[in-house]
Amino acid sequence: EISRQWWEELVSPTTRNHLWLTNGLATYSELLWNEHVSGAGALETGMQDEMVGALTIDQVPIIQSGRLEDYSPELWALTGSKGAAVLNMLRFVMGDEKFFKTLKDYAQQNNWKSVNTDDFKKAAEAASGLDLGYFFIQWIESSGAPEFKLEYTIFRTQKGFRVMGKVAQDLDTFRMPVTLKIETEGNPEEKTVEVQGVSSEFSVDTFGKPKNVIIDPAGHVLRYSPDIRVSVAIRRGEQFAELSDFTEAIKEYNKALDT
Questions:
Q1: pTM
Q2: Alpha-carbon span 54 to 243, nearest angstrom
Q3: I need a labelling partner for 198 at 20 to 30 A (CA). Which of 26, 38, 60, 145 fits?
């Protein structure tokens, strides 16, 4: 609540469509405080919970949040939970130094002003030197989230081993750096792959024999997986149950069981 007052009073969104600049920044500020006090594990745990919340409403883009009812679970999921998930992904894309410079510059340049998403984007691009248009189109102006599928083959080389494969997902316009962790008989290897479009190839050399390949091990990307689909369905079921809409609640619980 302290964070929300800070982001709501110091800088205020011009319309309800930009509420994520208040609710998302407040939610992520709370997670950053938990990271500061308790370490990276606390941020990761809290972020996983917010991502589940974010995916309970994946048909409405953040930039259309004004369509949703005030104080509704859907509005908070879209602006608070998904807003925080977007900020966490932006931090991963930009790196810590440039991300925190963005937050400071954004607050200092716009204090006591009304702001919109474009103002935040300009601050991020100025701090990072990157063209982030694709990122904001994907996560702010569009809806949905990817579900990754991993295919790979292991080859023996003169110096060790090579893992070659591809990352597939179903969003045509998707573009994000994604971390791959290759667990080996020795030290694990990590490689960042620029996943773009529905299929992206990769190749990683390792010294030890690879045993497993894990995609996005730190959970940076807002995405679906079987476990997350179960959690999302249960969360939606709980929301319907709280509203005494038990028919819809049972449908969601059945989705969880089916998955």
A1: 0.91
A2: 19
A3: 60
Q: What spatial distance separates the first Cα and last Cα of the chain, rounded to whole Å?
A: 36
Task: Give the Å distances, CA to CA, from 130 to 33, 72, 90, 108, 202.
Answer: 27, 35, 11, 20, 23
Dihedral of the alpha carbons of 62, 8, 84, 50, in degrees to the nearest 10: -100
Q: Which contiguous run of DSSP H or E holds residue 92?
A: helix 82-94
The vertex-141 CA angle with 43 and 202, nearest 5°, equals 65
pLDDT of 1 higher than 90: no
Per DSSP, the three-state class of 19 is coil
Q: What is the pLDDT of residues 231-254, one digit of tens each?
A: 999 999 998 999 899 999 999 999
The Cα–Cα gap between 73 and 139 comes to 19
Q: What is the rounded distance in angstroms from the CA atom of residue 104 to the CA atom of residue 98?
A: 10
Sign of the dihedral through C-alpha 136, 174, 61, 99: negative
pLDDT tens per residue across span 187-235: 898 999 999 989 999 999 988 899 999 999 989 999 999 999 999 999 9
